[in-house]
Amino acid sequence: MALDRAYSSDVSPSASPAATDASPSEPAVRALLIVDVQNDFCEGGSLAVAGGSAVAAAITRYLRSAAISEYAHIVATKDHHVDPGSHFSAHPDYIDTWPPHCVADTTGAALHPDLDASRFEEVFLKGEHAAAYSGFEGVSSGSADTTEHATDGGAQPDAGQPLAEWLAERGVNAVDIAGIATDYCVRATAADATRLGFAVRVLVDLTAGVSADSTVEAIKEMRANGAEIID
């Protein structure tokens, strides 16, 4: 299934005080964004992506590795649909319309059990009443355990804060992106991140795509937009 258009959100650069483009001489303050690693997007879910469960486990291994010391902040996003209108369909085309998935407060919307969420500083919820492919359409839930981050000198998260604003408030100017699906929500999140002025890396080995063809196109697009593709 090839994508016929790029998915972009309504997040505007002016919405982000984070237009702190990292200059070559400016040290990177990097965050890891883990996109939509939820039960419904993994095997057995209502909109399963092949390899989703393996990605959840792979991200957990990454979170427990020495590489994680590179990140000042680690956050996740979740689809959190209440009534997303035409995004849900009884007869989906799997391009613009989809079977019901990640309905708020259901098991399908929960993070996959193989994903270690203990390091997440915040979880951003998106799509209550819209499709919301990009993580930058999400707002903080205020539900993550921030205990281990309480003495880092940063502001503590409040529910309802947009992702771009949250990152900018903490001086983040670079993001690495992992998660599901490479050709949809990862793609849209990377597009918004580059447009908002972040230095972007996509950790392709820590993603899973809906189809091989659209995943190849998504990777080409992300690279063309300025994201660094890490595999």
What labels describe this entry?
231 residues, alpha/beta, Rossmann fold, 17% strand
Explain this structure.
By secondary structure, the protein is an alpha/beta fold. It is 20% helix and 17% strand. It has four helices and seven strands, in the order βαβββαβαβαβ.
Radius of gyration: 16 Å
Q: Tell me, what is the CATH class of the domain at 28-150 and 157-178?
A: Alpha Beta
Please report the total strand number as a whole number. Answer: 7
Helix content: 10-25%
Shape: globular
Largest sheet: 7 strands, mixed
Helical region count? Answer: 4
- The first-to-last residue Cα distance is 23 Å
Element pattern in H and E: EHEEEHEHEHE
Strand content: 15-25%
Structural class by sheet pairing and helices: alpha/beta
CATH fold name of the domain at 28-150 and 157-178, please?
Rossmann fold
Adjacency order of strands in the biggest sheet: 4-3-2-1-5-6-7
CATH level-four homologous superfamily name of the domain at 28-150 and 157-178: Isochorismatase-like
CATH structural architecture of the domain at 28-150 and 157-178: 3-Layer(aba) Sandwich
The pLDDT mean sits at: 85
